[in-house]
Amino acid sequence: MDGYFGSYAVVFALLAIGVAIFAGGLLANRLLRPHRPTAEKLTTYECGVDPVGGDWAQSQVRYYVFTYLYVVFAVDAVFLFPWATVFAAPGFGMTTLVEMLVFLGFIALGILYAWRKRVLAWT
């Protein structure tokens, strides 16, 4: 397996082995599982509640906004931990402090915008 295409041959061989193992597991599951469908087993099931009414439901947009705000704070936390470890390193103090203040400024502007638009009010 030398040369340029030899590396790709190894990758494709490992990919084929992975697909074969995955397909073998699915096939074994299909062959070994009990299969006794009934009308009750074939009904739609959602969180333990029987389906009632139509299949369309309206969702409030504010739930998505809270999700986006959570992602913003999660990204903020992900950046704060490495920043705290690098901040104490020699030669990085003022540079990392200014970069983090700029980053937190953008986060604060986003929260201020959401607050001014009354997105954060739960009514």
Could you describe the 3D structure shown?
The structure is a single chain. The chain is mainly alpha-helical. It is built from three helices and no strands. Helix 2 packs antiparallel against helix 3. The radius of gyration is 27 Å and the shape is flat. The N and C termini lie far apart (66 Å). The mean pLDDT is 82.
Number of strands: 0
Please mark out the parts with pLDDT under 50 across 5 or more consecutive residues, or reply none.
none
Tell me the number of helical segments per DSSP (H or I, 4 or more residues long). Answer: 3
- Beta percentage is under 5%
End-to-end gap: 66 Å
- Report the biggest beta sheet as strand number plus sense, adding barrel if it closes: none
Rg (C-alpha, Å): 27 Å
Overall pLDDT level: 82
Shape: flat
Query: SS-based structural class?
Result: mainly alpha
* Helix content bin: 55-70%
Listing every helix as H and every strand as E from the N terminus to the C terminus, the arrangement reads HHH
